[in-house]
Amino acid sequence: MDTTNTGKTGTAESDVIVIGGGAAGLSAALLLGRARRSVLLIDGGEPRNAPAEGVHGLLGHDGVPPGEFLARGRSEVQEYGAVIVPGRVTAVSREGNRFAVVTDDGSTRRSRRVVVATGLVDRLPDLPGVRERWGRDVVHCPYCHGWEVRDRAVGVVATGPMSLHQANLFRQWTPDVTVFSHTAAPLGAEQVEELTARGIRIVDGPVVGLEIVDDRLQGVRLADGTVVAQEAVAVATRMEARVDFLEPLGLRPVEHPSGMGTHLPVDPQGQTTVAGVWVAGNATDPSAQVIDSAAAGAAVARFVNADLVGEETAAALAHHREHSAAGTVPA
């Protein structure tokens, strides 16, 4: 059910359906709305950064709570006639030269083009305390949370090669960094020397959980019962693109070259291998921050509009030539 807007996109078909109402999706819908396109945005209501206190690194909006940021974006999008509906998309398929988008309430909506901006899911390490503190004092990105944990004791729970890169990055924000080897491969001599040179401590052995007292992170608990005092913990999540609903089109996520998880590859314009389907934001770029995703959404929107203009121009030209040949006046 359309709940927020009954503008020009109240028709059965839209120029563009945008799937996902985060920074990328809203930005795409905003630009397309301003281009006088009929836009339907379907939002599953699962923003990745919901646990965070604020959005950071976004010029003009630094520190704004994620919910407030999205509410502003939704309001701006609706000013240009776009319709926003809640729902989880379960399948996208092709019907001739149109797309059919099915949601979990059984509704089917159709459009000429589709923009996918559903982001990704962070698979957290299975350790007691991590999920409960996620986005608070358990973090993953120094550019998102580094300032908030600056000069504090930060423990990096290593699960793979990216964890050492993560430790070196957090060292930029605090001199007190500890790497817990946990499930990562044994460190080589060169890696140990590099960490030691930067003043990063190494604690060997598996981690069994986080120590939480009175809603405060106290430290990292090792398998032998030792608790190493820490004020924040960094973990490397496995990032999985949220695009399973594209399976009917033959589009499937693949492993990202960085090893961070999966993504859906696109060309430099954000288009997939299926003509008419574009992707913006974390679903294709796992490392994109809010500002990157917003920019990607705007860029994709321009390409989508240009594609539609090209289609409409070709149709107009064919119509014109048909009547010119017949000596009639085009309607």
TrEMBL record:
It comes from the Bacteria. Residues 15-294 form the FAD/NAD(P)-binding domain. Keywords: Flavoprotein, Oxidoreductase. It catalyses: [thioredoxin]-dithiol + NADP(+) = [thioredoxin]-disulfide + NADPH + H(+). The keyword Flavoprotein applies. Pfam families: Pyr_redox_2. GO terms for molecular function: thioredoxin-disulfide reductase (NADPH) activity. This is Thioredoxin reductase. It comes from Ornithinicoccus hortensis. The lineage of its organism: Bacteria, Bacillati, Actinomycetota, Actinomycetes, Micrococcales.
